[in-house]
Amino acid sequence: MPLVDIEVIEGVFDQAQKAKMIENVTNAMVEIEGEAMRGVTWVRVKEVRSGQWGIGGSTPSTADIKAMAAG
What is the pLDDT of residues 20-66, one digit of tens each? Predict the structure, then answer.
């Protein structure tokens, strides 16, 4: 039974976006392993608090990430 963890920065994605992540990852597993995997594929979306992660040696905030996504 597959278990997929997705870690995102807290406050960046809303509930609908997280639900879509779960749906799409589940569908990807089903595409690879077959329909029997749908009911046993676990997908967890974990939120990491702002300032508790880093990229390139810096610790951008939730607001920084939202600004980057807005482009």
Answer: 999 999 999 999 999 999 999 999 999 999 889 898 999 988 998 88
- Listed in order, strand segments (DSSP E) in the chain are 3-9, 42-48
Cα(35)–Cα(50) distance, integer angstroms: 37
The model carries a pTM of 0.85
Task: Report how far residue 50's alpha carbon sits from residue 30's, in angstroms, rounded to the nearest whole number.
Answer: 33
How far apart are the C-alpha atoms of 15 and 18, rounded to whole Å? 5
Task: Give the separation between CA 48 and CA 40, rounded to whole angstroms.
Answer: 25
The two structure tokens encoding residue 9: 């920065």
Per-residue b or e along 5-22, where b marks 16 or more CB atoms closer than 10 Å to that residue's CB: eeebbeebbeeeebeebb
